Amino acid sequence: MKKLVVTIFSLLLAMPGYAASVVASVNGTPVTDADVTARVSLMNKQGQSSTDNRRVALQNIIDDSVKLAYAQNFNVVPDDETVEKELAKMNLGDLSATERAMALSALRAEIAWQIVVARTILPTVEVTENDIANERANIAREQGLPIEMTIIRLVDIPGDVAAKLTKPDSCDDAMQMARDLGGAPQKFTALQYEFEDEIRNRVATLPLLTWSPVVDRSVLLVCSTKKTEEYQKLDELIEQNAQFKQAMFLADQQLKQLRRRAVVVINDDRYKL
To answer: How many Å apart are CA 217 and CA 30, to the nearest integer?
Structure first.
């Protein structure tokens, strides 16, 4: 009897270390608590921490597995050399063996997924003029465009005075209108991306020769705009960016479908999604 107990104990010690810490499986492939810990560590090193790190980390691991399985259908899974080069570019510092393995796995999945998207989804996306206009407006608000703008600004203007401002016929007309109402208009010209954030946000989509609403006792008016040579090049990038965003949205929808088809088993209630 004593020998039997010793044998059983020896067998337990010889079992794989992950057996007691498997928190989930994806299509039969186990995901351990150590895997999740390594993914959380990588997320932190990339500045991707959140209040629900471990669940997010597990979801990322599941997504990696799903992406790789799908990419294999197109024979686009990158080789080790490609993945190693990409990891070197990330400058993540010293990584433990588990962290390194997790980083390589995540990179392999992401590279493969991007290739799949580029081959199967991106060519199907059609960008409209409205899509481009919306993307241009977003860039104008967030960082500004290479457009030269001439602007009039009135500061310390009472609300009742601002209400008397009407649509001018020209920039000179706007200047005179402001003076007639007792204001001291400021006129300046600069590239849109050189403006302060507050000004850029207010004029990004403001029609020409139209007074803006009063904000902090000030109003703005765009007299004229002039596209620079740099703008023409940017327009092409804006179209590509609009197309890419749509492709990423469609890719996310496809990923959700692939998740639903995958056999995902969560063994630990702490990781219930």
So the answer is: 62
